[in-house]
Amino acid sequence: MTDHSDDVRDFARRERPLEGLRVLEFGSLIAGPFATRIMAEFGAEVIKVERPGAGDPLRTWRYVDPRTKTSLWWALQSRNKKLVTLNVGHPEGLDLARRLAAESDILVENFKPGTLEKLGLGWEVLRELNPRLILVRVSGYGQTGPYKDRPGFANIGEAMGGIRYITGEPNRAPVRSGISLGDSLASLYAVIGALTAVHARDVRGIGEGQVVDVALYEAVFNLMESMVPEYDVAGIVRERTGSSLPGITPSNTYCSKDGSYVAIGGNSDAIFKRLMEAIGRPELGEDPRYATNADRTEHADELDSLIEDWVEGRTAEEITRILDEADVPVGPIYTVEDIVADEQYEAREMLLEAEVEGVGSVRMPGLAPKLSETPGAVGWYGGALGAHNEEVYGGLLGLPADEIGRLAEEGAI
Questions:
Q1: Neighbour count for residue 397 (Cβ, 10 Å)
Q2: Which of 61, 156, 185, 399 lies most in the core, judged by the most C-beta atoms within 10 Å?
Q3: Which residues are catalytic?
Q4: Which tens digits make up the pLDDT trace of 81-124?
Q5: Which CB contacts under 8 angstroms, 24+ apart, belong to 65-68?
Q6: Exposed/middle/buried for 229, CB within 10 Å: 0-12, 13-18, 19+?
């Protein structure tokens, strides 16, 4: 396990690529907060706003540690963020929100469309306060269109974006992945959009901010490869095909002798020949029936049966060793237990040893992507509700301590 104590100590001194950007987060749960987490990991100053008393619901989602009454997900999702409490429904709270927006480069929100406007923080107001502000809006269906007022969560975005329909076994109900994939994809597009807008403002010389409108269903839909043109030209509707990948042959998941699953990809012409050599059937690599991917796709079932027979007689470790030596793409289907024991994850520093207050040492995911000269870093994990009120309201906005205390007593923060 990689010891990142030096990274934490040196966090403030390291050259980080997004240093100098201030991001104000009016978000909760996953889509908005995951986007700002990525920005914070690479040096942006992220100020996360939570409602006094309640806080982000993610604080109590999934596994909640009994010692802290807080989820471990929270420690991960809010790392490197400055946490403040703010009641925008309070007149003085609204004033503070506007002052924070005036001092920020980017504002990220994932409310239902129209909510910011009802709070008195619509785009026209924000642009007047800060013409350079970039407003990133993440919602189920986007800020326009007939569905914009519908509530939308990750599962709905995945369903309407097209990925659910093609996921699962033939003739069975569509299935979902075990994570909030739609939210996470939308977060990535939010980061892409935000940094694209920063480049336009600061490098291309536009000089002004703009609105970045991210819809969950569109983030999913954008991954759907050539489905639309295939349907438009040839009337093809992709269907659920289990673990195989239609039109790419062979590429499937197989069960080994010891009950483990391995993914094998032998779909390029050269790799297919090496795969056949590795499983003891070199003559098939020269068989004209399997000469090209299109040829192999016509015989996908028989090739799958052939590979399956070979896999069933060997352990996952044997299969991986043999195919690695043959330079054929192969990989075991990992559980989280496999991940935390894997040397590749270790070598790439994708498992960090995190010190979470009240819990102790906890393994957490590392940072991606890897930058050679200005890598990201983790300075701290999670935190209590309003942990940075004094630093932000006192340091950034210049409020005296007695004023911060009064605002807290009156429910504004």
A1: 14
A2: 185
A3: 183
A4: 999 999 999 999 999 999 999 999 999 999 999 999 999 999 99
A5: 65/358, 65/359, 67/358, 67/359, 68/356, 68/357, 68/358, 68/359
A6: exposed
Identify the CATH number of the domain defined by range 5-223+348-409.
3.40.50.10540
Residue 176 has pLDDT above 80, yes or no: yes
pTM of the model: 0.91
Chain segment 228-274, per-residue pLDDT in tens: 999 999 999 999 999 988 888 999 999 999 999 999 999 899 999 99
Q: Give the per-residue pLDDT at 259.
A: 93
Q: Domain ranges in the chain?
A: 5-223+348-409, 251-340
- What are the structure tokens assigned to 61, written together? 């989602």
